[in-house]
Amino acid sequence: MTLALGHRLFFAILLSAIAMAVVELELVRWKLFEDTPRSPKNIEVDRLGDLATAVSTQYRQHHDWSFLPADYPTRKVWLRDELTRLQAGAKGEGGVVPSPILGYRIGLLDKDKRYLAGAVANRVMIAFASIDTIERSIAADDKVIGYLVDARPQNPADELAVAFLLDQQGNLAFVAAISVLLSALVAALLAANFRRPINQLVDGVRQLEGARFDARLAIRRSDELGKLADSFNHLAARLQDTERSRQHWVADTSHELRTPLSVLRGQMEALQDGIRPTTPENMAIMLRQIHSLTKLVDELYELASADIGQLEYDKTSCDVWTLVDETLKSFSEKFQTAGLAATIGEPPAHSTVHCDVERIRQVLTNLFENCARYTAAGGRIDVNGAVVGDELRIMIDDSAPGVAEASLDRLGERFFRVESSRNRQFGGTGLGLSLSRQILQAHAGCLEFAASPLGGLRATVVLKLQASQ
Fold first, then answer.
1. What does the DSSP assignment read for 151-202?
2. Cα–Cα distance, 121 to 118 (Å, whole number)
3. Which residues pair with 138 in a beta bridge?
4. pLDDT, tens digit, for every residue of 392-412?
5. What are phi and psi for residue 126, nearest 5 degrees?
6. Which residues lie below 8 Å from residue 213, measured CB to CB, with a gap of 6+?
7. Are 83 and 103 in contact (CB under 8 A)?
8. What contacts 176, CB < 8 A, 6 or more positions away?
């Protein structure tokens, strides 16, 4: 059987409290027994026989125990008073007075050994105080009618301590019971205080298992459980955002695939029905849609590989500024066709980066492609580089149209497009910037966006410089 954490905590606290109580009682017993002055050994005159005879006589007179006092407090001292009366004026052998403590250490039981009077040590007290008990039977008309029980310490010098413990055993038992109950109450409250938030955490985890990512814990604590609840809420929020992104991702992907497929299907059905002739021009239209689908699938595959860390990188030392210059020159014809002027600034002081050359070229190609696609004719593109600390920053500025400030933070999200002239009519899928961000993050860099002083968009590629040898 597996105990719950709350039950374990409860029993741990309760057993600790009981152990402390036992230790404290043991210290009390040791203090009583060890610090009791050791008087010379007394030679007691055994008055138990006389007491047994006196009790037996009264029993025969009344034929039962009805002569005993009715209430417990009086019964407790009755046997002591009877012994005192019998010992009055009596002296033991050698003129030694019998011990006055004897009356505090004897009790009276009936034939079935049920309590009748005096002080009878219970089993716990017998074990706790190392007490020896001696029973002396009481007979009447040749029948045993009861017993006198004498509680004797193993060390005669400890009889006063034993007498005290026997006299107070009821009070000690009451205090012990109250202590255990209070300890149990405190343990239960403390266990509940920990078990309640733990149960809430378990319920929250089960909700997450059931894909209920809107689950939150209303736990307000300043301890470790409170921190754990806060971490759970943050995790649930992240999972909810991830699930929402996944749903958007699936919806956007299906939407992007549907458009070229629909065009391709329409073209093929038109050819099949003879509506359109099978000409090189019509075949070229279908081929463009196939290329569009191929590019989209390739980008999706690369993004998925980057997400799970399986996008391969072959890193080596590279002068990135030279790579920027080469890539920009490769776009000169496309910029000229789009009516754009491109310029590049002075090379930075240091531009050597440990990177995958082809992947960084892919990032630059994507950014220049966006400039050519979205910048209005007659505009310009400026490329500049700077070293800031241990980072190389490559700024690519284009002219109008610009991007609204509210949309800057979303650039690089998958399938996100700005609702302006920078839209899908120019053929973009919105995956290129997302893949570029993934590539730069794998190089311990990043891709930043801001408004360009030319009136368009500034894209900044940030890469860690290779340390000088």
1. EEESSGGGHHHHHHHHHHHHHHHHHHHHHHHHHHHHHHHHHHHHHHHHHHHH
2. 10
3. 146
4. 999 999 998 888 777 777 676
5. -60, -45
6. 236, 239, 240, 243
7. yes
8. 21, 25
